[in-house]
Amino acid sequence: MNVGLINNSFSGITNGNGALQTARTNSENSKFADILKSLQSQDEGRGTVSSDQIAVDGRFTGDYTSGYAGTFTNEADKTARSQGAASNQGNPNVKSKTIDKTSTLYEKAMELEGFFVKQMLSSMRKTVIKSKENDFAQDMYEDMLFEEYATQMTKTAGFGLADQIYLSLA
User: Does residue 52 surpass a pLDDT of 60?
Assistant: First the structure.
């Protein structure tokens, strides 16, 4: 079947608006093809990059959460004081220890703290009464949202659980 014939018939029914829509569609298709060509030509002999070259160690390909890598990068973070529950010593004679927040061990300790915070948030989320049942996609995206909340809370709230874990393992 001829697409032009269909478009012309449609144009006759819609008082010429079909021709305008066809022109817009053709223009958008042309722009998209130009963008695609420019992206393909930017290769510059580098070759393609596989997903295992993009993925950060310890993360899945396609894991788009912010994560903890690179959270602390200053020189002062290498000799930071513990915070939160780790800094609350019952004995005033015990000197507080320093933590290297730039280390991989501390990043993993933050991941564990983030897991506990996410469990806490998930338990809190179950207490909310909802007006209708969620579908699978909404549940999945809501879970991803609360995982990101847990990550950001772990980075900024200063619970101190990661500090305690780091001090226990260091």
Answer: no
